[in-house]
Amino acid sequence: MKAYNSNILFNTSVKRKAENWLAQKLITEEQFISISNYYNTYSYTPNIFVRIGLFIFTCFIVLASLGMYFLLFSSGFNTGSGFYEITSLLYAIACFTALELLIRKKQVYKAGSDDALLYVGLISISLFIFSLMSSFETDSPIVFFSSLLPILFAACVRYADRLVTFAVTVCMYAIVFLIVQNLCGTFAKLIMPFAFMAFSAFLFFQLHYLHRKERMHYWHSCLALAKFVALLILYASGNYYIIRESGEEFFDLHLLPGQDIPLAVFFYVFTAVVPFIYVYLGLKNKDKILLWAGLLVFAAGAITFKYYFSMGHPEITLTLGGALLILIAYFSIQYFKKPRHGISFEEEQDADSFLKTNAEALIIMEGLKQESPAIQNDFKFGGGQSGGAGSGGSF
Amino acid sequence: MTELTKIFEDGHIDTGQYERIRESESNRLFSIHWELRTILYLGVLLLSSGFGYLIYLNIDTIGHQAILLGIAAVAALCFYYVWNHKLPYQNQLIIHASPFFDYIILLGSLLFALFIGYFQYQYEPFGSHYGFLVLIPTLLFFYCAYRFDHKGILSMAITGLAGSLGLSTSPRQILEDNDFSDLSVVFTALLLGLALAAWAWYSDRRSIKKHFNFTFQNFSVNLLSIAALSALFGQDLKVISLAVLLVICLYFIRFALQQRSYLFFLLPILYGYIGFTYFVFYLLSMTDMNEATFFVGLCYVIASAIGVILLFLNLKKIIKK
């Protein structure tokens, strides 16, 4: 079911935790090195910039081979029936075969090339569905989304990719939207916000439940992303601006001056209160996903109110808003300088900040690892700020 | 099974350590360091752009001098605070005790630039020599960046320096605003890029603020490569432009290998690849275009992309040398 070996991925996560513990001086350097050497990880997970490069150039190859295919097999643009269906299907099969071979033979994991093949393969499948539908002369979006959803979901389960997870979430929301629109007819515009809220809340709690399970380790990053999306859509489905504008866009809601949308007060309160709830719950449960979603929707809520209750002085809003943000940050920093309620302004001593300051030393160590284990034992890289000279090394 | 129990069961740590790590994991503080810093940064940006807008709207009214005075007072307060809380200069990284220090100096610098801009608009002390106008805040920015160790202000300073030479360096505008069909613009960009790279090289050797090198090199590689690429696309001197571009790319690839920096490896390869591919297709377009040339072009793309991928895959081996 899983394309990547979850034991190996767990080993990667063991190593990452070990880096944290090393940064906090909970384990010694010797222990860290013995841990790094004991657990095998995927041999090829490159730096983000190498990943971008591999992604771009793999796309070049894939597209150029498509061009070559067209050059060889199509006579101009006048192609016979079934040409696009067969092409897209063949193309998808080719991409996934290459992807599986790459993972198995080359032991790559999130290396750019595998991402590119996965995305191009999935796009080909959606084109296949699309051209199949047009050859049957249907253009019903619900058929398209519901035949795409199982494929995307399967890909998400197998490859645990975050962009695919995002596509799955979007697909689900599209289906919910279309079902409500078709079933409820003229009432759709009244029901839609609540259907979206209910679905988002349901989705969030399901994902939250799964996210805490140890055995779901393979999909942790996917679940986190889907939770984040569910939170944002939960807020968006009750945001006054979105309700009002989407009402005009999708449901022929034409408001005369002085009129307001139904249940306007409810949506105003929702727009204003939910960001505070998110931020509060995020801080209380020490949940970064809730906190970030809260900060984002806080900005969205502020802009919404600004949009409808503008005094016509953007310069004063900007100045006061800036001053307000500075004051909020100032008092929060002063308040949390000493840890309170388990929350602190102190920068976390984790691998990320550790890597930022010690990147060069760690990269050098990586380079030395296979050749001479003896050298690393003498290698000192715990020197706190002195590593600042290595800036840029991590980029 | 958690990561901790795994390393415990595999015998990498003893029971005491196991308990200590479990204790520390469960008592772990929730850090909102970067969230608060981001809010602070947004606040500074909003405040300074709000002030800018305020002046712009009130420029001919009675109140504008009061607003200007207010801005000058806030800027002066910022610099006063910074001057009183500064640490002695050193060539290494300076970490200021207060988390607000960096943001106060940033606010002061932004407001100072605003003040100069207004001053020029109202009294035109430099006439139409806008280069001088940009140069004054630029000098101050360079001073502040080095004296108080602020990478953000350093970026503003380099942008200002490019601006006083008539160039735009922001990623969005580097192509839009610069008229690279004018050969003198290309030369200016090349010279500035070279100067930045040279300064980065010199300060690296003399250990002057080594952590600034990333910023200098980043501006330099983008400016140089884009100038050379624009010359390649827009001018008739294709071969010379391509040669210049390849020399630039080789320099930065060498630099990247020395610094073990992946970004400076990716960027020159991308720029170089774009230039080289353009040149190949330029040559192909000189032949009589038919399906065969198209086929050759596609073969080139596939073969060259495979080549670059192999280069990336063997990067670790190359870097180790």
Give structural notes.
The complex is a heterodimer of chains A (395) and B (321). Chain A has 395 residues and is mainly α. Chain A has a domain at 142-270. Chain A is built from 15 helices and one strand. In chain A, helix 11 (264-284) packs antiparallel against helix 12. The longest helix of chain A is centred in the first third of the chain and has 26 residues, at 48-73. Chain A is flat. Residues 357-395 of chain A have low confidence and may be disordered. Chain B folds into two domains: 36-134; 165-321. Chain B has helices at 3-9, 15-26, 33-57, 64-85, 101-123, 130-148, 151-164, 173-176, 183-205, 213-234, 238-259, 263-286, 291-313, 315-320; one strand at residues 30-31. Strand 1 of chain A pairs parallel with strand 1 (30-31) of chain B, so a sheet runs across the interface.
Q: Topology, please?
A:
The complex is a heterodimer of chains A (395) and B (321).
Chain A: H1 6-23, H2 29-38, H3 48-73, H4 83-106, H5 113-135, H6 141-159, H7 162-184, H8 188-211, H9 220-236, H10 240-250, H11 264-284, H12 288-308, H13 314-336, E1 343-344, H14 351-369, H15 373-378
Helix pairs in contact in A: 1-2, 3-5, 4-5, 5-6, 6-7, 7-8, 7-9, 8-9, 9-12, 11-12
Chain B: H1 3-9, H2 15-26, E1 30-31, H3 33-57, H4 64-85, H5 101-123, H6 130-148, H7 151-164, H8 173-176, H9 183-205, H10 213-234, H11 238-259, H12 263-286, H13 291-313, H14 315-320
Provide tags for this entry.
heterodimer; A: 395 residues; mainly alpha; 15 helices; 72% helix; disordered C terminus; B: 321 residues; 2 domains; 1% strand
